[in-house]
Design brief:
Layout: E1 2-10, E2 13-25, E3 44-51, E4 60-63, E5 66-80, H1 85-91, H2 94-111, E6 117-120, H3 123-137, H4 141-144, H5 154-165, E7 169-176, E8 179-189, E9 192-194, E10 197-200, H6 209-224, E11 229-234, H7 238-243, E12 246-256, H8 260-285, H9 289-296
Parallel strand pairs: 2-3, 9-11
Antiparallel strand pairs: 1-2, 3-12, 4-5, 5-11, 5-12, 6-7, 7-8, 8-9, 8-10
């Protein structure tokens, strides 16, 4: 058991957070076949992602004197790495395949550099990657807007090196004119590689650096055959749909002991989720969502 920090957000912005004494289940949803709770009393158990078939049908329900709160349902997009790269491309639609090839060709023609793509595996290589990617991350909208840049601090660095020492992480960077313009960081667990952090310099957006880097990373991953699945993690996204070969429907589930703090958290979190959804609908009606996204970037 340890403290579990749960945030209340409006869109990507964190407004406040609550600390609960409890546990977090981070197992891959394909490995979860039932909802099991710890025997010892705790304030909260968080299942970051479970198959939607195991989640309660209602957002809020009460079972066995516990509060079951299911604030989100979402897809996980996956890529099975059980074939070669050409067979993988054959699983994509012809239009998608053609678009990606065109983007890669455009970048290659502009870069004029055989060493534009870099892969990092070992602890020493990951240290080099971290220095490059942290500086680049400061310029990305992923960090400035979404607070999802490559993390700073010794805790992340030590975990990255630990993973590298057991061959459980892959990282990549893309360069143009001698400058890093995109990075991708993917840790692994139980043969599954996770899409954890990706960022790119918005000044090079015309060259689709995120898509090009993902293509080149997959080309390398299919060749080495070290991992069985690449998981794009929770949520929708054009980037994820473009590269994925299958979809797994999941849900986030929180189980609380009924008390004042859990009641306040659930009420605030559900309220701001509704406000976020409402604001997105309004921006769609006014046809300004894409404009606002570009403005933020």
């Amino acid at each position: 058991m340890k403290d579990v920090k749960l945030a209340v957000r409006f869109g990507p912005k964190k407004l406040l957070s609550f600390n609960f004494h409890g546990a977090t289940c981070t197992a891959h949803p394909s490995e979860i076949h039932e909802i099991s709770l710890p025997e010892r009393p705790c304030q909260c158990v968080v299942f970051s992602s479970v198959p939607v078939t195991l989640a309660p049908r209602r957002t809020l329900s009460f079972q066995k004197r516990l509060v079951y709160y299911c604030p989100a349902r979402f897809p996980r997009y996956l890529v099975d790495l059980d074939c070669d790269f050409e067979n993988y491309l054959g699983r994509l639609g012809s239009k998608t395949r053609s678009t990606l090839k065109r983007k890669v060709k455009k970048f290659t023609s502009a870069a004029h550099d055989e060493n534009a793509f870099h892969e990092y595996k070992t602890p020493a290589e990951l240290m080099e990657f971290y220095g490059i990617a942290r500086e680049l991350s400061k310029r990305t909208y992923q960090e400035r807007l979404l607070e999802k840049g490559l993390p700073e601090g010794d805790a992340f660095l030590q975990e990255m090196l630990r993973l590298a020492s057991t061959n459980s992480v892959r990282a990549y960077s893309l360069h143009m004119n001698g400058e890093a313009i995109a990075y991708l960081y993917s840790p692994a667990k139980n043969g599954i590689l996770y899409y954890d952090y990706l960022g790119y310099d918005p000044n090079y957006a015309e060259f689709s650096p995120g898509s090009v880097l993902q293509w080149l990373a997959f080309e390398r991953l299919f060749a080495e055959k070290e991992f069985r699945v690449y998981d794009f993690d929770e949520g929708e996204g054009q980037h994820k749909r473009t590269f994925a070969t299958r979809r797994l429907d999941c849900a986030k589930l929180m189980v609380f002991a009924p008390n004042l703090k859990s009641t306040v958290y659930v009420l605030l979190n559900s309220t701001f989720l509704m406000l976020t959804a409402f604001s997105l609908r309004v921006s769609d009606i006014l046809h300004v969502r894409s404009f606002l996204r570009k403005l933020y970037r």
